[in-house]
Design goal:
629 residues
Length: 629
């Protein structure tokens, strides 16, 4: 990411940073076209961001750049998961402030950049920008001091690459070696210059062994290393070697490039400008006037005079060539132009200091942030208001639906109670009538059967007593024995008949009917299974208690569970009749667990000597009643 800044404004390592020429910018129309196309919906947001990235790189000096980037910032701040374009936005502003000579703004935007998430090594990045500013001000001593302060970062690059912890940008780091070479060259510090070049060589050898580094990145790292090496040759008076390397680099930088690769095109152009500038310096230093004039002309064509400081540097070299040629008058006139431009730059710096550019930029940015926050706050208020209305509507709807459900559940419970009460009343009345009929039948059968047989037996006994010892007494005794056996068999048979209760084949159907009415099919999914054979074998009194238990269980489903699925089973298991009911509702709360309904079920189970198990959680409730047969 650091190379985004470097490729936009720091590649001119030997030249001061520039300010935008005071003439109409031909890129303004491009900005207006792009922004209008996006506002009309002619291009997508992704396409818009890509186009702005390219245009901002090529129009980095435009004084209105921040204004043109307003829509870009709005889009990026709303949707930039990686935060990459947020950092890129500040890169644009840093570069714009740098080339316009606004050091205060540069420092301010650097601080904004390093605070963005994802920034790698903020301290190192601050040092890089400080070096750029000192180099731009031709303060080589402070530039060297900052580099020495940050030197541990560069010394450790090969080790970090070897152990897989390197997270920097190879081109950026290799470029900074090249950028610092003229600093030590200007200080005439041969020891530190040669050490720097040695370190640059080691770093380059580590970079080219990185498997994921592209061929173009490797070529640029090589170009930066060789360009730095040239200053070592010049320091050692090896002018021919420096000239050979610089011409090699010029040939590489002159190769055709894909115009769609904006970043690569800009870097290659700046490499060409810098190599040409170095060659020009070499020829001036050794007095090769013709070669110097040739590269002076090439350098002026490449520069295009877009920046005042570029113009200033070229005027200096022109003045030197004129002096070498003996044209001292022209050299003097050129120097006068240099002084005028220098005065302009000094005035610019004075204005910046007096206006406190850093504080002003901070205030402007805070105002812009406040405007964005107010707009965002209004948007959030509108969303919150709409959300509140929707929420109230949903709550009201749920309330009325809940009330309707409660009314329906109450109606179902009332219907269940009426149906169950009728069934229980019918069972109890049948039980009373059957008991009376059994008593009457018992009386008749005792009178007509057993009583007559006992009376006959009484008479025969009296005769036998009177005829003891007479002939025929044996026959009477035999008859008495037969009547006694008959009375015994009759009594035994009747006791079995009276003990056996007549089966009620309609009891299971009554339970099914109650369930169907209380739990309608359009609301509940039901699974019902009833073992009629063992159910009908229950005593009538047990059937009545079971009916009450079923009623309370279904009432719980309707009143508390809020369920949609119900399973009801009655079956025989290990000489017990098991009643099981389960729902998928919300479970029983503490209040429901101690309510009248469940208490009633517990009491009836106790009366039946039945076992009761109740389990309940957020996935539903299950009631299990085990009745001994």
């Amino acid at each position: 990411m650091l190379l985004w800044v470097l490729c936009m404004f720091t590649f001119a390592c030997c030249l001061p940073s520039g300010i935008y020429a005071q003439e109409e910018n031909t890129y303004d129309k491009h900005w207006q076209r792009i922004n209008q196309a996006y506002q009309k919906g002619s291009i997508t947001s992704t396409r818009y961001l890509d186009m702005v990235d390219s245009l901002a790189l090529t129009d980095v000096a435009n004084p209105r750049l921040k204004e043109y980037l307003y829509t870009y910032k709005e889009l990026v701040w709303k949707n930039d998961p990686t935060k990459m374009r947020r950092r890129r936005y500040y890169h644009f502003l840093i570069s714009n402030a740098k080339v316009n000579g606004q050091s205060g703004k540069v420092l301010y935007y650097v601080e904004k950049f390093v605070k963005e998430p994802g920034t790698n090594d903020p301290g190192h990045y601050r040092n890089v920008i400080k070096m750029q500013l000192f180099i731009a001000a031709e303060d080589v001593r402070n530039a060297a001091a900052v580099f020495e302060k940050d030197s541990s970062y560069y010394y450790n690059i090969p080790n970090k690459i070897a152990n897989g912890t390197y997270k920097g940008d190879p081109q950026s780091d290799q470029f900074l070696f090249y950028q610092m070479a003229p600093v030590f060259f200007g200080l005439k510090d041969s020891a530190r210059l040669l050490h720097l070049i040695h370190m640059a060589g080691q770093t380059y050898n580590s970079f080219i062994n990185m498997k994921d580094l592209s061929l173009w990145d490797k070529e640029m790292c090589y170009a930066f290393f060789r360009a730095a090496q040239c200053f070592g040759y010049r320091q050692q008076q090896k002018t021919d070697s420096a000239e050979k390397v610089l011409k090699e680099l010029r040939a590489y930088a002159s190769l055709p490039m894909d115009p769609n690769q904006t970043r690569q095109v800009i870097l290659q152009k700046q490499l060409l400008q810098n190599v040409t500038g170095q060659l020009l310096d070499v020829y001036i230093s050794v007095g090769k006037i013709d070669s110097a004039k040739k590269y002076q002309e090439i350098a002026e064509q490449l520069s295009g005079m877009d920046f005042i400081e570029d113009h200033l540097a070229l005027l200096k070299s022109r003045s030197q060539i004129q002096a070498l040629s003996g044209d001292y008058k022209s050299a003097f006139n050129t120097m006068e132009q240099i002084f005028q431009i220098t005065d302009t730059l000094l005035k610019r710096k004075t204005v910046e200091i007096s206006e406190n550019m850093y504080a002003q930029t901070l205030a402007e940015d805070k105002k812009e942030e406040a405007t964005l926050l107010i707009a965002e706050k209004r948007k959030l208020i509108a969303i919150a208001t709409l959300g509140t209305i929707v929420l109230i509507s949903i709550i009201a709807l749920l309330y009325y639906r809940g009330k309707a459900r409660e009314r329906k559940a109450k109606q179902s419970i009332d219907g269940l109670n009426r149906a169950t009460a009728l069934q229980i009343a019918e069972l109890e009345e049948r039980n009373r009538i059957e008991q009376q009929m059994e008593k009457k039948k018992l009386g008749l059968e005792l009178h007509d059967g057993l009583a007559n047989q006992l009376a006959h037996l009484k008479i025969l006994s009296e005769i036998a007593i009177a005829d003891v010892g007479k002939p025929g007494a044996l026959n009477v005794l035999t008859k008495i024995n037969e009547l006694t056996n008959t009375a015994y068999e009759t009594t035994r048979s009747k006791s079995h008949d009276w003990y056996k209760i007549k089966e009620d084949t309609a009891y299971a159907a009554k339970i099914s009917g109650i369930i169907s009415n209380a739990l309608p099919d359009e609301i509940f999914q039901k699974e019902i299974s009833i073992d009629e054979y063992h159910l009908n074998a229950l005593p009538l009194s047990t059937k009545i208690e079971l009916m009450y238990i079923i009623q309370e269980s279904i009432t719980n489903v309707l009143k508390h569970a809020k369920s949609t699925k119900v399973m009801l089973l009655i079956y025989e298991e290990f000489e017990n009749l098991v009643f099981r009911i389960k729902d998928n509702g919300r479970g029983l709360d503490s209040r429901s667990k101690s309510g009248i309904g469940l208490t009633s079920i517990k009491e009836r189970c106790t009366a039946l000597k039945a076992k009761l198990d109740i389990s309940s959680d957020k996935e539903g409730t299950e009631i299990l009643v085990t009745i001994p047969l």
